[in-house]
Amino acid sequence: MNTIKIVAIVLMASGILGLVFGSFNYTKESEEVKLGPVELTIKEKKTVNIPVWAGVGAIVAGGVLLAYGSRKS
Predict the structure, then answer these.
(1) Is the Cα torsion angle 10, 11, 13, 18 positive or negative in sign?
(2) How would you class 11 by CB atoms within 10 Å of its CB: exposed for 0-12, middle for 13-18, buried for 19 or more?
(3) CB–CB of 44/27 below 8 Å?
(4) pLDDT digits over 36-53, tens only?
(5) How many domains does the chain have?
(6) In the list 23, 33, 43, 59, which could disulfide-bond 15, CB 3.0-4.6 Å?
(7) Any idea of the CA torsion for 47, 52, 57, 62, to the nearest 10 degrees?
(8) Residue 73: pLDDT band by 50, 70, 90 thresholds?
């Protein structure tokens, strides 16, 4: 399996996952305050939405690369 086919499969898989889940969450730690023995850390939960066009675009780009990789072999 050559590199182009692997990249195509990864693009298609990520596009499908983007369409299925639509968003993902992560936690961001910010500003740590130390006042003697007291420490304060703020954890913020962030959500990143994945646009539908990005998922579809990744699937289409992966399909094009897969077709192109198959022709070159």
Answers:
(1) positive
(2) buried
(3) yes
(4) 888 888 899 999 999 999
(5) 1
(6) 59
(7) 70
(8) low
